[in-house]
Specification:
- With 391 residues, the chain is α/β, with parallel strands linked by helices.
- It has 2 domains: 79 residues, no CATH class; 282 residues, Rossmann fold, CATH 3.40.50.
- It is built from 11 helices and 14 strands.
- The protein has a 6-stranded mixed sheet with strand order 3-7-4-8-9-10, sandwiched between helices. A 4-stranded mixed sheet has the order 11-14-13-12, with no helix packed on it.
- A hairpin with a 3-residue loop joins strand 12 and strand 13.
- Helix 5 crosses helix 6.
Amino acid sequence: MSFFSIAQCLLGQEKYFLYCIPHHVTIKTVTLLLIWQKPCEYVLPNQIQTFMKRTAYNWIIATVFGAATLFSCHTQTALQDKKPQAKIMGHKQNHELPHIPLPPDYNDPNMWTIRDNDQEGTGADVFYVVSTWEQDWMTNDSTICHYADVHNPVHRQRMGIEVNGVADYMAPGNRFFAPFYRHMTIDGWITLNEDTIHRRTRISMGDVCNAFDHFIQQRDPSRPLIIAGFSQGGQAVVELLKHMSDSTYQQLAAAYVMGFKVTPEDTASCSHIKPAQGESDTGVTICYNTVKDVKYVKPVVSATCFGINPVNWHTDETPALLHDTITVSLSPSHHVLVVSGYSGSEYKPFRNFINVGDIHSCEPWLYKECLQRNFHVRAQAWRKTHQSLSR
């Protein structure tokens, strides 16, 4: 028999209401609300005595049953709390927050790739930001991590593949600097959620800004400055343009956002972001993203508000021929590069996110000869402008 039925039998003919309130997630505590329906002023004295005795007896019984029920509820709750919880992602349970690796110390030379190939002193200082190289990984205590660990030699080695590759064409005639930083893993991008990406990349962008500040303090401000980055590194270039002071901006020959977007909100909030209009203007931002068709534009990466063709340096749809076989045109409506005569088959699709109709992975490599020449063109144009201003 249920507690409700027992209580009804004990309480006799008087009218009571049983009211349940939540006690735990799946446990309910029973509370009795006593309501006497008879008007007391019309009850005879001996009836009052009989009624009060019976009522007191019934209240004692109800209280005992209620206390027993509460004890049972708390006991069940305690036992449930001791049950083992489900494992996360097939690993041992760990209630800790996601692991965040220790920050880089940019006084440590191991946190940099540096090449000084400007023997004549006529080149530029190039600050390059690497793209995404890590996936989510687990620490030894089974805590998930959404960032590259710059203190892990394997992570630095993987980032170094790209850094050394771009340094081969960006460093000649220049001084090249590339910091290692706690970049967000590819899993953050795959969420396709702008809020998640923005939240997670705060740490990444903070590292890049710290590295840049350290770099600016060390460099000769009379030399032209070039900043460049690919993918997440391109995002960092946009953030650096917002971060840098006006005096640092005056040192800027050009900023190269490769394989990432510049949004209307970016341009509205930052006067340092000025779209390049040609081959030799300075203090400008070069932005490009490559696809086989505009239907492959990915909003979280390449939905940009301006672009330029790095082969002919046009901002309209005038086609350019690259490597004698590849036609590169800028879509006037989507501001991305549409290529034909090139499959990009050397860049395999990754987790159905990149290289699926877009050719994201080609950005630092397909146009490298064009970029190498343009670095020198803009650096020399900056020198001419600032030499004339200093006279």
